[in-house]
Task: structure prediction
Amino acid sequence: MKIITEFPRKVVEFPDMGIVMPDGCRLSARVWMPEDAGDDPVPAILEHLPYRKRDGTIFRDQLTHPYFAGHGYASIRVDMRGNGDSEGLMDDEYSEQELQDACDVIAWAAAQPWCNGNVGMMGISWGGFNCLQVAAKQPPALKAVISLCSTVDRYADDIHYKGGCLLNENFGWASTMLSYSSRPPDPLIAGDNRWRDLWMTRLENQSFLLPLWLSHQHRDGYWKRGSICEDFSAVKAAVLSIGGWHDGYRNTISHLVTNIEAPVKGIVGPWIHKYPHYAGPKPAIGFLQEALRWWDRWLKGSETGVEADPDYRAYVMDSVRPARWHPERPGRWIAEQEWPSSNITIEALELMAPRAGSSTVASPQTCGLAGGEYFPFTFGPELPGDQRPDDGLSACFDQPELTKPIEIVGAPELEVQLASDRPQANIAVRLCDVHPDGASELISYGVLNLTHRNSHEFPEALVPGETISVRVVLDQCAYRVPAGHRLRVAVSTAYWPAIWPSPEPVRLTVSAATLSVPLRLLATGDEAVFAEPEGATPWATETVRPANSERHVDHDEKTGIVTLSITDDFGEVRDLDHGLVNGSIARETWTIQPDDPLSASGKTHWTQTLSRNGWSVRTETWAQMRSDTQNFIVSARIEAYEGEKLVFERDFDENVPRALV
Result:
C-alpha cells in the first residue's frame, strides 16, 4: 500500500466530538475534516458502528478517514449508543433507535457550518448493513452510500439463517457482541468520575441476543424490518456495493445492481471480510480512489465518470490447489456493462446418479468440516480446504472431464427430486472443481431446510417417503475451471459446523437432479483496471502481545466425538498517541458425534482487556448452546474486573422452543 502523507487540504482531527440526540443521549464521534472547512464547507461522510473507534476499528479508520478528509470531506466515525465512548444502551442490531440515531447524525452534520449540506454513508459488515437500511429511510441530506460485505436480506442472507437452516454463526455472533459490548468507555473521554457509572449501567442492561434471534426461526416481521429487499425502490441514494468471494456476503452485489433503481454499481474481488485496499487474498485495489470518485460525483457534483462504469466488475478466480489460506488468487477482472448480463448463458447439466435409479444420502453429522469459516477474517487458516473428506461423506455427481476451460459467473442452481425419511431435513449442495489427481476445491455452496422448500415464512413438514422437487440456489461466484478438470456436485444431509443439524438423522433418496450453471465466454485478460491501494498514515502502535490464530480438529477414537477448536488471539497493542492498551482473545469449540445430531454443542469464551498507567479492566464472557428435540438450550455469563477485583457478574439461561418445520 502506498502511504499518502500530503493531501490537497490540511486535515484537523477531533477525537471526541459530541453529537447530542433528540432524547439527550450524547454520541461520541471521531471527526477528521479540512482545516479550512469553516470557510470552504465540504460534504460529510458517516460511518456509524458499535465497534469502538478508540480501539476497535482504529486500524482501518486511520488508513481511511484522514484520506477522505484530505480530499475535501468531513469524515465522521460515530460510536453507536451503548458502545465505545457513547452514552445510552443498545438492545439489538439494526434497531429503530440505531437507524434513527444515524438519521439524526446525518441531519446534524448537514446543518453544520463546515458542511455543504450533502452527506454520504459508508461501512463494512454492520456499517454496510445499516447504511443501506438508513438509505431506505431517505433522510434528505443522504445522497450516496458505499456498502461493503453487507446484505439486502436479514433473514436469508446474513449470519442468522441461510436457506431456512440455522447458521451456527448465529450463536457465534451473539457471543461476539456479548463480549464487544461489555467493555467500558475510555476514562480519558468519559471522565475519571463518570466512566465507571456508564460501564456499570451498560453491563446491568447488557443483552445476550441469541434467545431473541432463535425465537424468530421463520421469515417473520422481525427479519423483514430492515431487509431492503422488501422494497428496493425505497433506496434513492446512489449505491456502490463491494464484496469478496471469500466472504460470507457474496450475493448482495448482484442483488443490488439487479434491483436498485437509483444509480448503482458493484465490485467483487477475491477478498475475505475486509476493506479492499488492505484485504487478502491479493490483488487488493485502490478502494479509496474508487470511493473518492463515487463521493465526488454524488456529494460534490464533479464529473468523475462513475455513471459510465460497468454495472458489475468481478474478479474471476483461477483454479488453485486447495488450501486453508491463499495469500494471492490468480485470475482476471471482468466487466459487465449491464447486469444481469446477456454475455452469460445458463447450461443445464443432467446429473447422473452414482448408482442406477437413485442415490441415497445419509451423511454423518461431521460432514462439513472442510468448509472453512462463514466469513474469514484473520488472514489465517479459515478458507475451505480440500473437499475430499466431505466429498467422501456425500453423494457425489461427477461430470465428464472438461475438454476446454469454462468460466462460471453467477449463482449455480440445483433442481433435485428427492424423498426424505423424516419430516424435517437439511440438504447441503457443494459445487467443486476436481483436479486430475482428485483434489477438490470448493467453488460455491448452498443449503436448504427442506421444510422451507416453498416458503421461509410458512414452512411445511415433509411427508416421509414422498418425492418432492426442490431448488437449491448456490452462492454467487466467478471461477474458471481448466480443461482436464471435472465439476462435482456433492450433496449431503449435514454441513457442520456451518449449520445446526436437524433433530434426527436423515436419509434422502435422490431420484433426479439438474445443475444449472451460468457460463460466460472466457476473458482473455483484465477487462477492468484499478489503481494500486493507497492509504493515510497507519495507526502508530507498540505490540505488547503478538496476534496468533490456531485451528485444531480432534477425533476421539473411543466415543467418535469430533471437536473443532479455534483460538483467535488478536494480540495486545499500545496506542502511541493516547496510551490505551487493548487486547482480545476469542475461543470457540464445536463438538458433535457423527451418529447423533442431538450431541451438537457450541461453546465460546472471550477475553477483553484495556489498560493505561496502572488502570486496567478486563471482561470475560462465556456462552454455550445445545439442543434436544424440542428446545435450544442456551446459557451465557459475563464477568467484569477492575484490576483483579471482580466488580460485576451476570448469568443468562434460557430454553427457546425449536421449530419443527
